Structures are given as C-alpha cells and as structure tokens.
Amino acid sequence: MSDKTTGEPHEFQAEVSRILHLMVHSVYSEKEVFLRELISNASDACDKLRYLSLTNPDLIGEESAFRIHVSVDKDMRVIRVSDNGVGMSREELIDNLGTIAKSGTGQFLEQLSGDTAHDSQLIGQFGVGFYAAFMVADRVDVISRKAGEDAVSSWSSQGEGTFEVGEVDTADDLLDGRGTTITLHMRDGEDEFLDPFRLQGIIKTYSDHVAIPIYVEDVAAETSEEEEAKDNSPVNSANALWARSKSDITADQYKEFYHHVGHVFDDPSMTIHYKAEGRHEYSVLLFVPTERPMDLFDPQRQTRVKLYVKKVFITDDAHLLPGYLRFVRGIVDSEDMPLNISREMLQNNPIVTSIRNALTKRVLNELKKQSEKDADAFAKTWDTFGPVLKEGLYEDFERQETLLDIARFKTTQGDELRSLKDYVADMKENQTAIYYIQGDDPAAVARSPQLEGYQARGLEVLLLSDPVDAFWTANVPGYEGKPFKSVAQGAADLDLLPKEDKDDTDKDATPSDDSAIDAFIALLKTSLEGAVADVQRSDRLTDSPVCLVAGEGALNPYMERMLAASKGGETGDLLVTRTLEINPDHALIKALAAKAKDGVSEDLEDAAHLLLDQARIIEGESVVDTADFAARMVKVLSRSV
Ligand code: ADP
Known about the structure:
The chain is an alpha+beta fold. Helices cover 36% and strands 19% of the residues. It contains 22 helices and 22 strands. α9 runs parallel beside α12 (400-406). The radius of gyration is 32 Å and the shape is elongated. The chain binds adenosine-5'-diphosphate (ADP). Adenosine-5'-diphosphate binds at residues 37, 41-42, 45, 83, 85-88, 96, 129-131, 180, 263.
C-alpha cells in the first residue's frame, strides 16, 4: 500500500469534530491510554470474528490464530496496530470512525468548558476510544477488510474536520490478509512512544488481561543484527483473567480488566469474582463502578454484562441482570451452553434465566454485605446507584424485601443515611406507619410544612426526592409489617401521639375560638370552591398557617404533577382533589377567623386566595392565575402600609 491514502473526502459528524479538537489540544496526563483503546478495539474485533466463525468457519480459513501486532518504526515515526479480527467495510469505516453512536456523548460534550485542563480530565471519565489516537498522532491511517469480503478499504485523517475514504489494491499490510491495521504518524514531542520497551510496558500495565496474544515488533531492529535476538513471545499473559484464581490477580489487574470490559475509566467500587458449580457451571467477574456511567438513565436501560461460552465471546446483550442493576459491568463465562448458541436462542434460554437469577441474588447480597460492614463505602454506592436500585422495588417483587433491607434514606432525624431497620427500631410508641414525604427538590422537601406536626412529636419522616420514589411508594405495601404513609396525604392520625415538650413561649397561647374557625372554614370553602376539594382543621401543622394534603386514595401529588406535565396540561386542573388544611393555632388564622365572624369581605376573599397560592408555592408548584395573585398581593400590601 502506498503510505498516503487518497480517496473521497468526508466530514466528521459535529460531535466527533468536537471530540477530536479536544484530543488534539489535550493535556490529558495519561496519553498512553491510546494504545489500550486501540488494543481493546482489536481484541473486540477478534472476539466478534471468532463468534461468527462458529457458524461460518470459512471466514477464518486455515489461519485461525487470533492475534494483535504492535509494530514501531522509530525512523518513520510510526506505530502500527494490526489485528486479524472481523474488519470493517468501507461503509463501516465511515460510520464507525466518522460518527459517534455512544449514548452519553451529548451530555459529555455539554460538560466541556473550553478550559483545556478541565476538559482533559473529562476525557478519562468518558472514554473516547479510537479517537484517543489523535492525542499522540497527527495523522491516522486505517486499512481494513471485512471478514468474508474481498475489498480492502482505507480511511485517513489528520483529525481536523475531515477524513478520506478509499480503496487499496493489496491486503499486504493486513495480518493474514484480514482484519484491520491502524497506522499512527506520531506527533513531534511524542517520541517516548516510539520505543518498543515503552510500548511493552504500557501493554503489560493496561492490557495484560486481554485474552488475545499481543506481540510487539521493533521494525528498526529487524533490519539490524538485533533481529536474531528478537523475542517472539506475546507481551501479555493472554489468558482470560476470570479463569485465573483470585489469589493470582492483583487489584490493578482487576481494575484494568474493568476498564477494558466496561469501556470506562473510573475505579470499581466493588469486585465480584467467583465460579459457580452445580446445576450450571460458569465463571463470574462483575464490577460495581464508582461513577455513574454516562448512559445510566438512558431509557433503554440496557444491561452490560458480557456473555462468553468457554472463553468465546458471544454477546453483551444477553440480559444477564435485571434493568435495575444495569450499572454493573463485567462478564459471565458459561461452561455448559452450546458454543454455537445464536443470540436469538438466548432470549428464552433456561440457562440464561437461571444465571440471571443467581447473579441478581449474588449482586444484591454483596451490596447488602457492604451495607452492613462498611456503612461509609455503602453510603457512596447508594448515593450513586440508589435511584436505580429503587426501580427494583416495584419491578422485582421477589427481591423487594432484600432491596428494602439495602435501601438507605435521608430522614428528618439528621444527616446520616438511615436504613428501614433503624427506622422501625426507633419508632415511637403508638406509631403504626413509616412516614415519608416526597417531592422533587431535596431542600424544599425537608422544609415542607406538612412535616411540622410530625417533628413536634419527634416522629421520623423519610425525605424522598428521587423521581423513582413516586413509583415505589405507590407499590410497596410496607416493611416489617409497617405500611408506608405519606405525611402529605390522607388523615394525619396524630391523635395518639403526644407532642414533645418544647419551649413555646414566643407562641400566641390564647386558645382559638372554635366558632370563629368554623366560620372561616366555611368562608374558605365558598371562596375556594373548584380550586380545592375541601378545607379542614389540621393537626399536622405547628408553625405554618396552611398546607395542602392529597386525598387518601388519590395519586400522590408528585405523580399528579408528572401526569399533568406529561399531558402538557395545567397542574391546577388536577389538584382540585386536594384538601387545604389550616392551622387553628396560628396567629394569622386566628385573626382572619375573628374577622370571618362578621361575614364575608374583600379582605378575607383576598386572604383565602393568597393562602392557597402560597401553599402551592411551598409545594414547588406554580400559581395557577399569576395575574390574580399579583393583584391581590398588591391590594393586601397597600392596605398594610
Ligand atoms: P467503542 O469501541 O467504544 O465502540 P471506538 O470509537 O473505539 O468506540 O470504535 C468505534 C467502532 O469502530 C467500534 O465499536 C467498532 O465497531 C469499530 N472498530 C474500531 N476499531 C476496530 C477494529 N480494530 N476492528 C474492527 N472494528 C473496529
């Protein structure tokens, strides 16, 4: 092949251009990861071809020893990475190396600030794959032949907005005439990588676990007398890491393997490695990440555990874990599934089902163990993945109890995360339910007026602010026989629970006038007709004058809001199902009630509407009629000055 590929020019997708710009100007301190990325892709390509060749042996012909060659030519300033894997067609070169399909890309790009140092750190978190080559090379040439096809295609780019695609008339530069060869023309200043020993070091550090043998070749040495002394053994151990015994594997090796299978760069917060023996035999190596993967809240909720059969990669789409454990990365290697199992056959395969059950149980047990043994570490895990794990509470009834054991909550009790076991153990005498309040802003939730009566009685309330909380609270009957009860819904039932003694000297201690309060309630009911379902005295308030409460059987207010939002409707329409509760001991209510005895007045009408509007605002809702709200507010203020 001629060194310079000429061909049809193409433009990179805008997202890719931005990533390439970032690569070219990167000050990312670990540039050597470019090699790990290229080797990872090469090893995936070999895995893919091995799988395809199970049903179509002709694809690999006689030459079946999968391998990866890294050659370095110091004089020409090039590094070549070749594999005899599945290869790419011309269209695939354009699609795979010209666009980026990875979910989370948009989010990643949004985080970029333009500040090189800051942005370079993000590279590590995102994992830029093939494009990492442009951190060290100012031109990258790719030639490739897709398995089973004749054409050899080329791709070339200097990483600046465009690439060229063409055809090559010889397969000489491909390993065994197939697969892919990537040639990096190294930038000035990146000479350290033109040293075969340095490359070997990088491979040992990052790619030792890769199950395909990797060879490093010094092209300059081959032309000299040193050729004799050439070492022809692979640089990596080239055996499947999961098949080794735990005692032979270092923490760093686990970490590198996690980076490889997960295509991520953080540290694993938990490593689960074991061999299952019994009805089915399989090895498991799973990792819980420290950081949220970019696609954690992707609506597809795809799980990412790779399935191997007897060390042959089959698919990463076998649904080996339920959706609520989609943050777990790793592999399962089955000893008893047939090697030629097709991806379609996997869908209802009883072995897959049995492995999924066992894996789910194991992962949850490990999480539970961590929650019991290392509260601090678990608090971090829960903080990161709790919102996803909670999906299991309504999706997986069989494991609901285990998940409730694992779950941790912010509560009114303090800053520490609390378990339900702690909660139940500390319940007050006569307390029959586990109380919670839920909304979308954690700070607002903690300040909700509905909490007042509970706090005055020393009753702990769970503070829920993840969107998923609306779903599980509606579906989970209870924990250890205690039902979950929203403090913002239905009757408060606080009669049997005495208030704790507090210094209330600054409170207006005169008892409220019952008949005046009744008159005021009647007035509110008339004024607010059609805006609330009812008006009642409250025993859940101590400091605030009013609050809104949902009906016992109604959807919780949060769900109502989401439903209204999803229908694009006015939230006000739905919220007529709620009751406005008033605090008869509050000075403002007492004063308004005293006036109400004399009959309806404009002042009282204004007060009624403003009280409802402010109750809505505290709930994080918007006022239904903002012009009316503003006009009444101005009137009231004018009267008071
Ligand atoms: P990722 O590996 O995370 O998908 P990359 O940008 O590294 O992202 O690669 C994009 C795609 O290009 C890969 O998913 C793969 O389909 C293809 N690819 C890259 N390198 C090779 C290779 N050596 N052989 C075959 N296909 C490759």
